[in-house]
Amino acid sequence: MKFIQKVLANIFQIRQILTQRAKKELQGWKIYEVIGLFAVLSFIFINAFFVKDNPIAVCSAVCGILYTTIAGKGKISCYFFGLMGSWCYIWLSFSNALWGNMLLYLCYYIPMQILGIFKWRKHLQRQSREIIKIKLSMPERAKLVIIGILGCIASSFILAYFKDKSPVIDGITTFLSILGMYLTVRRCIEQWLIWIVVNGLSFIMWANLVMHGERAYSTVIMWGVYFILAIYFYFTWKNELNKS
Question: How wide is the angle at C-alpha 231 spanned by C-alphas 111 and 175, nearest 5°?
């Protein structure tokens, strides 16, 4: 009897901890953001059921959307979903011979997300536990544009040499994603401008693969949602920076 009481007490304590943690994570969220996230995830699951989507694609989409949304809210817990989604996306890229995207996630995204956990922990607001957001100076932006153009050209040529299925789009998205992840770890608003380009081109790339027979509908939806979220969080961060 005492053993059962102890087990129930532990379960109740764990439930309280999880409830408090959930309240902290949802602090600062607007009601339409929660409803929108729930609606998108529900649509992905329903769509996956009817079209018999690839389970890895579904997992990648769900984790990716949670990562992007929570990162946009400035919560460090985003990296938990980011790491899970990255492993799923690595498998999808490998299966579709998108070598640039595969190497990007394997050799760069995963290490950078782990680094991001430690970097963000040093720059959290006391009350909201959200990151302190910053923006680049004009000289830094100019350097970023030059590096981005040269890097995209070089990446496209390299991937074309290795017979990538979509060398131009894959090359551009791969290199810009490197810059985007760097800016994410640095907490810069300019990351969202880069993600708008990356997400839009990635949506086109995966939509083309689906039209040619690949079962990855959830991945197409994921990139479409990413595109919308990047626009939304750019203006959200901009308003916050203007106020501060």
Answer: 40
Residue with tokens 């995209």: 152
- What pTM value is reported for the model? 0.80
| Whole-angstrom distance, CA of residue 204 vs CA of residue 201 | 5
In this structure, are residues 185 and 175 in contact, taking their beta carbons and an 8 Å threshold? no
Give the 3-state DSSP-derived string for 20-39, with helices as H, strands as E and coil as C. Answer: HHHHHHHCCCCHHHHHHHHH
- Tens digit of pLDDT for each residue in 18-40? 455 555 565 667 888 888 888 98
The answer to whether the CB of 142 falls within 8 A of the CB of 70 is no
Measured from the Cβ of residue 106, the count of other Cβ atoms closer than 10 Å reads 16
> Each residue of 95-127: pLDDT tens digit?
887 787 788 888 888 999 999 999 998 888 877
Q: Phi/psi zone of residue 215: left (φ > 0), alpha (ψ -120 to 50 degrees), beta?
A: beta
170's CB contacts (< 8 A; 6+ apart) are 98, 99, 100, 101, 155, 156, 159, 164, 205
For the residues 57-84, what does the mean pLDDT come to?
Answer: 89
Looking at every residue in the chain, the average pLDDT score rounds to 84
Please name the residues in contact with 89: beta carbons below 8 A apart, sequence gap of 6 or more: 60, 64, 101, 105
d(C-alpha 154, C-alpha 9), whole Å: 60
Hunting for tokens 């810059």 — which residue is that? 179
